[in-house]
């Protein structure tokens, strides 16, 4: 067992113990990892301009509605598909999308590290569920 493997094992065990002890740090840590992986992959990005989309070559006009429904399915039923999408965002295939995704990953990580998770959950709940019951966004007629 080399020193590099033992360092990785120790780091993994320490990280695991820390996340078990402080579960509020799981989501910010994952978000920070997405940022770190995207920055790391910046070195390996393609220097050539991205290829243009050719609908005839890709047969985009022959796609039926079942394939589109499967592609844009929002249910987390197929984790591999979601993982491939996240990987494509950090691999610099589309530089603008990758820059935005990595910047948002850093912003989300910083916010979630600094703000307690109960405040984030409460804000999310008020924003998503409670806007009508709180009267936010309602126009009053006089």
UniProtKB/TrEMBL annotation:
Any Pfam family hit: PRT_C
TM region positions: 25-42, 97-114, 120-137
Domain Multiple C2: 27-76, 78-126
UniProt entry keywords in alphabetical sequence: Membrane, Repeat, Transmembrane, Transmembrane helix
InterPro entries noted in UniProt: MCTP_C, QUIRKY-like
Protein name listed in UniProt: C2 calcium-dependent membrane targeting
The species this protein was found in: Artemisia annua (Sweet wormwood)
